[in-house]
Amino acid sequence: MTGSVSRMTQGAMTFDVDPLMECRSGGAGGNYTVVATFTNNISVGNASVTAGTGSVSGVTLSGNTMTISLTGLTDVDQLSITLTGVQDACGQMLADTVVNMNVLVGDTNGDGTVNSGDIGQTKSQSGADVDATNMREDVNADGQINSSDIGLVKSKSGAGF
Fold first, then answer.
1. Is the whole-model pTM more than 0.90?
2. Residues 92-139: pLDDT tens digits?
3. Per-residue model confidence as pLDDT tens digits over 45-73
């Protein structure tokens, strides 16, 4: 595997973050998507949550990517997603791989704790159009950075690993 990201649609745009620290809310269902990229095209593969809360609700393969739909993830959780049985288009079975993903809603600066720094960062982007430079501050992933995001970050203050 060459890399992985957490992918979420925010308004009309889709943004990826390093899955080491997902700061955006997965909504009431705790729904997230992880995309793993491989060097070569892949033809089969499975995924399962092997540590943390939640489960895999679907796996889609396309070219050299495996898209893993997750549900039931909880805030302040450290997950391990194990990829097994991945076979490339040439028939070579790849070694099992673990993708780690932390969920900490409101940790907009990715430091492992939600505090005044995250609140200030979110406030400073309020009213701005969501783009690749500030998409972490759209913590409710609705495509807008506003008082709802600020309130959500404030409500999570003190959480961390």
1. yes
2. 999 999 999 999 999 999 999 999 999 999 999 999 999 999 999 999
3. 999 999 999 999 999 999 999 999 999 99
- Domains and their CATH numbers in the chain: 3-103 (2.60.40.1220), 116-155 (no CATH)
Question: Is the Cβ–Cβ distance between 97 and 2 less than 8 Å?
Answer: no
